[in-house]
Design goal:
The chain is α+β, with helices and mostly antiparallel strands and 646 residues long. The chain folds into four domains: 168 residues, Rossmann fold (3-Layer(aba) Sandwich), CATH 3.40.50.140; 183 residues, Topoisomerase I, domain 2 (Orthogonal Bundle); 122 residues, Topoisomerase I, domain 3 (Distorted Sandwich), CATH 2.70.20.10; 117 residues, Topoisomerase I, domain 4 (Orthogonal Bundle), CATH 1.10.290.10. The protein is built from 18 helices and 18 strands. The strands form five sheets. A six-stranded mixed sheet has the order 2-3-4-1-7-8. The protein has a six-stranded antiparallel barrel with strand order 9-10-13-12-11-14. A two-stranded antiparallel sheet has the order 5-6. Helix 9 packs across helix 14. The longest helix has 30 residues.
């Protein structure tokens, strides 16, 4: 009997897939590496009886690194890192993943890859292939033996459909990841080693164990510092607002909006105030009533999920995506990494809704939708990757921890909301005059809550309805006064705003955006304040100002955006891997040489902000491996992320 070896991206996913494909009739055992289980059963593959064996990896099997001698920070000039050899090493040596895969694949006739369906997953496919091909049986006649499963949700229907429509792994997408890994390794390590050695050896209060540079990380920090600089340089201006209150009834007052909005000249504002004070009553000029809509949301993609998680749920994007991945592997939601906001034409919207009709919180709303008919979803963007993020199973609060439930609840309510009508309301604007000055007041009256019935945080407020007034009516003026105010700068960037900027400028991917934001926080370049706002630290500010002083390209988003475009062309088979790699390395190598030559410009900024090493009074020693300065602590481990003694 022939055998089929199958590999998923995570142990939990392998178990779910095995249960679905075997009808819960598989036997399971622990693999020798202690991390991955192996599930076996018999079934049919390509019209023949076979023995299936399903296991998994734990993310990437291999990672790109420099050969050992190039990881000595003291003996290797960082400039060498642009041209020195690289090699693939085991991503987690203690898992012995290549050995484990090779052993379990021994004697197999076919390989079916169930890695996540994105570029990173495609890259892991080829890592797995390189580990198992020497162990598998040779098939004569050039028969296809390597297959790729394409799926977007861990449900019986999706998984069985994927098994019945296997494809080949996409080498172009994998090569684009190889290119990104090599560029980030060479560029990031060269700049990071040089500036860390230069500044850690001179200043003692940097509050960071590593002064890192990243082709995506640094422009991400640049957005935060740009907002900080705008706030610091902002010069407030004083202005005056004419505020008027009128009485409608004994119990009801209206605050009117001045048509001129504000005046920056107090004397002029006083003239207008005196005009108003000469009158006792405000006259209604006209009442305009117009039916308006608050549009239902488009289908949910990754970037929007991260934005809402931060702004609405108070979760960092990295934390939110970790929870989303867990919900996905447990089968509660579809694949959470997608750029698409348009449901495919064959998407079973009714079927997905019916799953939720018995829910205690929103089941009654779902039953109404099914009874009255689904509203045709808004036409969104089809990126050609995965369907939008949708709930795949019904769940209740008690099944999750607090944050996981809130994320699942939002995803489900958003999905239901996309299939409901727009919210409609009556917008009423009352225009009034007092002497020569014009005022207005606007209110809203709900007609149909539409999607806000389930997405209730977006519902109209009850107190927005205006009284019934007619043209020609006069209302007594209760109060007329000038209020002095000042213009104010915008606040620091929120994570949600930063995500929008990164998406707009092409910095990172939906998978890497949360990683870059997390990195600038972990490196102590920004701190997350109330409202999940990102406030740059002194170190973050000085670094960005230093790059701007020496070479603004290093911190501007345009450069990385251009690189991302080239990487996407590799993925599409429209650009040559080696050409893109060599051209980009040459550009950054020249920029690195110029940066090293002009580092004094950045150092001048460090001198103003930080104290010399000798003045800090801190006991310091040098790591015996990477030779960086570290605080003397009880442990012998170095905290440097790139040091072997971590």
């Amino acid at each position: 009997m022939k055998s089929v070896f199958m590999v998923a991206e995570k142990p939990s996913l392998a178990q779910s897939l095995a249960e679905i494909l075997s009808g819960k009739k598989c036997s399971s055992r622990k693999g020798f590496n202690g991390a991955c289980s192996v599930h076996e059963w018999t079934g049919v593959f390509r019209e023949q009886s076979v023995r299936f064996k399903m296991t998994s990896v734990c993310g990437h099997v291999m990672s790109l690194d420099f050969p050992g001698k190039y990881n000595n920070w003291d003996r290797v000039d960082p400039a060498e890192l642009f041209r020195c050899p690289t090699e693939k090493k085991e991503a987690t040596a203690k898992l012995r993943m290549p050995e484990f895969l090779g052993k379990e694949a021994r004697g197999s006739d076919y390989l079916v890859l169930w890695l996540d369906c994105d570029k990173e997953g495609e890259n892991i496919c080829f890592e797995v292939i390189s580990c198992v091909m020497h162990s598998m049986n040779r098939t004569p006649g050039g028969e296809q033996i390597i297959f790729r499963a394409k799926f977007s949700a861990i449900t019986d229907r999706d998984i069985k459909a994927a098994m019945n429509s296997l494809v080949e792994p996409n080498e172009n997408e994998s090569r684009s990841v190889d290119a990104r890994q090599e560029l980030d390794l060479r560029i990031g390590c060269a700049f990071t080693r040089f500036q860390t050695k230069f500044f850690q050896g001179k200043y003692g209060n940097l509050d960071s164990s590593l002064i890192s540079f990243g082709p995506c990380q640094t422009p991400t920090l640049g957005f935060c510092v740009e907002r900080h600089d705008f706030i610091q340089s902002f010069k407030p201006e004083t202005y005056w607002v004419l505020q008027v209150k009128v009485a409608v009834t004994e119990d009801r007052q209206l605050a009117l909006e001045w048509e001129r909005v504000r005046s920056f000249d107090k004397d002029v504002a006083n003239v207008f105030l005196n005009v108003v004070k000469e009158n006792k009553r405000a006259k209604v000029i006209k009442v305009e009533m117009k039916e308006k809509t608050k549009p239902r949301p488009a289908a949910l993609n990754t970037v929007e999920l991260m934005r809402i998680a931060s702004s609405g749920l108070g979760m960092g994007p990295h934390h939110a995506m970790t929870l989303a991945e867990r919900l996905y592997t447990q089968g509660y939601i579809s694949y959470p990494r997608t750029e698409t906001t348009h449901y495919p034409e064959n998407f079973d919207l009714k079927g997905a809704l019916r799953i939720q009709e018995g829910h205690s919180d929103w089941g009654s709303t779902v039953r109404e939708i099914l009874r009255d008919g689904i509203q045709k979803p808004k036409k969104g963007h089809d990126a050609g990757d995965h369907p939008p993020i949708t709930p795949m199973r019904c769940a209740n609060r008690g099944q999750f921890d607090h944050d996981s439930w809130r994320l699942y609840e939002y995803i489900t309510k958003h999905f239901i909301g996309t299939l409901m009508p727009d919210c409609t309301y009556l917008s009423t604007t009352i225009s009034l005059s007092i002497g020569s000055e014009n005022f207005s007041v606007t209110g809203k009256q709900l007609i149909d809550p539409g999607f806000t019935k389930v997405m209730d945080w977006l519902a109209l407020q009850d107190d927005e309805k205006l009284p019934d007034l007619k043209g020609g009516e006069e209302l007594p003026i209760l109060e007329a006064k000038l209020t002095e105010r000042q213009t104010s700068p915008p606040d620091y960037l929120t994570e949600a705003e930063l995500i929008s900027l990164m998406e707009k400028h092409g910095i990172g991917t939906d998978a890497s955006i949360p990683v870059h934001i997390n990195n600038i926080s972990q490196r102590n370049y920004v701190q997350v304040s109330a409202g999940r706002r990102l406030v740059p630290t002194n170190l973050g500010i000085v670094l960005v100002h230093g790059y701007q002083k020496i070479d603004p390209d290093l911190v501007l988003p345009t450069m990385r955006s251009a690189v991302e475009e080239q990487l996407n062309l590799i993925a599409l088979g429209k650009a040559d891997f080696n050409s893109v790699l060599q051209h980009t390395i040459e550009i950054f190598q020249l920029k690195f040489q110029y940066f090293v030559k002009n580092i004094q410009g950045m150092d001048e900024l460090f001198e103003v902000t930080f104290s010399p090493l000798s003045a800090t009074g801190r006991p310091l020693s040098r790591c015996g491996k990477c030779r960086r300065y570290i605080k003397l602590v009880e442990t012998k481990a170095c905290a440097a992320p790139l040091c072997d003694l971590r």
